[in-house]
Specification:
3 domains, TIM Barrel, 528 residues, 8 helices, SH3 type barrels, alpha/beta, 27 strands, 8-stranded parallel barrel, Glucose Permease (Domain IIA), 24% strand
């Protein structure tokens, strides 16, 4: 039986020890941070901080010497899919366990510093793509790599990644592709601003199946509340929206209208049907862990908290987050977690939010990230939404990060820029949006920014302001698309319906879409 595998690395490297069929070991030395790819399509069976095991067919392969492992147990991977990076030592070891003894499992590459794949499980020709925006940045490495140029609108490039991986990434916010320009330049760029060139589109109509539609590329989102009569709309009403943000409230029991409950399983059963149907419809789900995850009704008086009391709360709070994350790990139903909400609120203005001193929040964030990572090593974990603006808010964020251990960082900074937008607009009374994005963007350079609440407050039910609210929203999104498209991961409106606190809803208190507002708003995430 012949067995052939993809070569696991690209870039500068050398073979420390060629594949040895007797021991099943291949050793490669590469630069730290070099991308490591799956050698075949298979299923992940074990994950550790610096290694993982994958099974396909009768083979088991251990891959060791890694960092930033981005797969999880039970995850199905495609041949060539990025799964980790070479560790700090740069020494990668693959050990193959299987009953056969094929000496040609890995062949010695003809040039040991730049080995080519032995064989490809994806034999489709490279896909050609085109840019959907003018001035799209290309970088030496993904996300925060050195910019090396821009693409013009409709410029054709070639994907250097397998066709299956390329198709899965296209149009998905947060994904990056390795591409080659017509002039031969190799670079990385944002996959959500690329589409298949016409000749790459299928020539026959696809068969209709029951599979869920792919996630929309829109960064627009909406805040929902499953306990509100209008807060859990049918997924069909959310067409064109990319994200839903849902608070995971363990405290409230709707069966008897009591607070302080701690039954995670009961809360999970309440939320699961809603989260499942949104995820299956292609929406991305952001779960928020607030004071109602644990703490409310547990003997903690939020107005009398001090560092000692926060220290007492955090271990149980973090464990509650771990238990919830464990239920969703590997399901592809939750796409990000947010820890707390508006933690930098001034105490005198606190109402629904519970403020936390920066040092205590750093401890909470650190321990919650550690707890979630025990059961889910890949789903992004972001900060609560900062709400005190580009000055005090960004300084609070800096103080939080400075108080965290250097090896623990959130995967993004979230903030709530109410009252900010285009200069001079009636609803931009607190100043320009760009000022706030730039301030928070400087806290953790290279990390994405999440706008987890924005909108217009205190105008519910007023039809006379509809045109102004729409123009405000259009200007807000225009600023993001034109200047910060690669930084902002989501822009989540507050809220879906009038009556959900004091946000200006997309629908009225009866659930009816607002005429001349609803559909234009939903289109804002895709084009000017």
């Amino acid at each position: 039986m012949s067995v052939q595998l993809l070569w696991p690395l690209a870039g500068e490297q050398r073979i420390a020890a060629p594949y040895d069929a007797s021991s099943g070991v291949l050793e490669i030395v590469a630069l730290p941070g070099t991308l490591v790819r799956a050698v075949a399509a298979g299923k992940v069976t074990a994950v550790h901080a610096d290694s993982f095991r994958i099974a396909f067919g009768h083979l088991l392969i251990d891959v060791m010497g890694l960092q930033n492992v981005r797969v999880r147990v039970a995850q199905e991977v495609v041949a060539g899919e990025p799964v980790a990076q070479a560790g700090a030592a740069g020494h990668i070891k693959l050990r193959v366990y299987q009953p056969l003894d094929p000496a040609d499992l890995f062949q010695q590459p003809p040039v040991v510093d730049t080995p080519a794949p032995v064989a490809s499980a994806d034999t489709a020709p490279p896909l050609r793509l085109f840019a959907t925006r003018d001035g799209l940045r290309i970088r030496e490495t993904p996300i925060d790599g050195k910019p090396i140029g821009t693409l013009k609108l409709d410029e054709i490039v070639t994907s250097l990644e397998p066709a299956a991986i390329t198709r899965r990434k296209l149009g998905v916010n947060g994904e990056w592709l390795h591409i080659r320009r017509e002039d031969g330049t190799d670079a990385h760029t944002a996959a959500w601003f690329l589409k298949l060139a016409p000749e790459a589109e299928p020539l026959v109509a696809s068969t209709v199946t029951d599979a869920p539609a792919p996630a929309t590329a829109s960064i627009l989102g909406i805040n929902l509340d499953i306990f509100h009569p209008r807060g859990k709309p049918d997924h069909a009403q959310l067409s064109g929206i990319g994200w839903v943000r849902i608070k995971f409230n363990v405290s409230f029991n709707p069966a008897n209208h009591t607070y302080g409950n701690r039954d995670i399983e009961a809360a999970y059963r309440r939320y699961l049907p809603h989260i499942e149907r949104y995820a299956q419809a292609g929406l991305k789900v952001l779960i928020v862990f607030t004071h109602q995850l644990y703490g409310e009704g547990a003997g903690f008086d939020w107005k009398q908290m001090d560092s000692g009391r926060w220290q007492q709360l955090v271990p149980t709070y973090a464990d509650f987050a771990r238990q919830v994350a464990a239920k969703f790990a590997g399901t592809n139903q939750v796409h990000a977690y947010q820890v707390w909400n508006e933690q930098d609120t001034h105490p005198e203005h606190a109402r629904a939010a519970v403020p936390v001193p920066a040092g205590d929040y750093a401890h909470m964030l650190t321990e919650t990230i550690r707890a979630i990572r025990q059961v889910d090593p890949v789903t992004p974990i972001i900060t609560g939404g900062h709400t005190t603006g580009p000055g005090p808010g960004s300084q609070y964020a800096r103080s939080t990060v400075a108080a965290m251990p250097p090896d623990i960082r959130p995967d993004g900074i979230a903030f709530h820029p109410y009252g900010r937008g285009e200069h001079g607009h009636r609803f931009s009374n607190w100043g320009p949006l760009a000022e706030e994005i730039e301030a928070y963007g400087a806290v953790l350079p290279g990390k994405p920014l999440w706008i987890t609440e924005w909108g217009v407050l205190d105008h519910q039910g007023r039809l006379d302001v509809l045109p102004e609210v729409l123009s405000y929203a259009a200007g807000f999104m225009h600023i993001i698309r034109q200047n910060f498209a690669e930084q902002v991961a989501a822009a989540i409106w507050y809220a879906w319906a009038d009556g959900m606190d004091n946000g200006f809803g997309l629908v009225d208190a009866s659930g009816r879409p607002k005429a001349d507002f609803f559909e234009p708003w939903c289109r804002l995430g895709h084009h000017d």
